[in-house]
Amino acid sequence: MTPRTLLATTVLSLLAVSTGSLAQTPVYQDGILSIPAGALLNASGQYYYKDIQLQADAAGRLKVLAASPRPLAYVDSVTPSVTETQDSRQVTLRIAGNKSVPCVALEPVAISRKADTFTLLVAETVQGPAESCIAVLAPFEITVPLDVSGLAAGSYKVVVNDEQTTFVLTKAPAAR
Q1: Is the predicted pLDDT of residue 171 greater than 60, yes or no?
Q2: Mean per-residue pLDDT for 89-100?
Q3: Using CA atoms, how far apart are residues 26 and 31, in angstroms rounded to an integer?
Q4: Exposure of 49 by Cβ count < 10 A (0-12 exposed, 13-18 middle, 19+ buried)?
Q5: How far apart are CA 77 and CA 26, in angstroms?
Q6: Under a CB-based contact definition with an 8 Å cutoff, are residues 156 and 111 in contact?
Q7: What pLDDT does residue 88 have?
Q8: Mind giving me the DSSP string for the chain?
């Protein structure tokens, strides 16, 4: 099964894509759902897509009209930082790794949480067909906040591309 077919069959597994600026909103117009960016996680792998277009068939199943795959960046390390005070809790991840070449940028990070596991995908932009770039790894380091509001005290797993780590929340969430 191709990644494109997997996207069509498990489209509801799309992750939210976190951006430092205003996130673009999915738009449904003329029978087509346009999603600026999304990620797919399933048993066969992890995939990051841009410019996703979906259309419902006569049976109501979504069919992929277009989706531009993005390569995942190589992640060397993930270091969580937990700050807990009487009134708040914050978790940030320091993610370090390498882009495949210096001429590409990182896409906004896709973040999902299921039960006690956070999954993040760090992907790269792609070069245009006429672009060339020296083939050397380009180090990067980013900091990504995790939304831990409302989570119970306990241990949580974090998976970023192929790297894994854990963090512990020791305080119960603040009452509102």
Answers
A1: yes
A2: 96
A3: 13
A4: buried
A5: 32
A6: no
A7: 85
A8: --HHHHHHHTGGGPPEE--SSPPPPPEEETTEEEEEEEEEEETTEEEEEEEEEEEE-TTS-EEEEEEEEEPBPEEEEEEEEEEE-SS-EEEEEEEEEEESSTT--BPPPEEEEETTEEEEE-BB----TT-------EEEEEEEEE--TTPPSEEEEEEETTEEEEEEE-SPPPP-
Residue recorded with tokens 């990070």: 109
- What is the widest separation between alpha-carbon atoms in the chain? 56
Alpha carbon distance 88, 101 (integer Å): 39
The domain limits of the chain are 3-70, 74-169
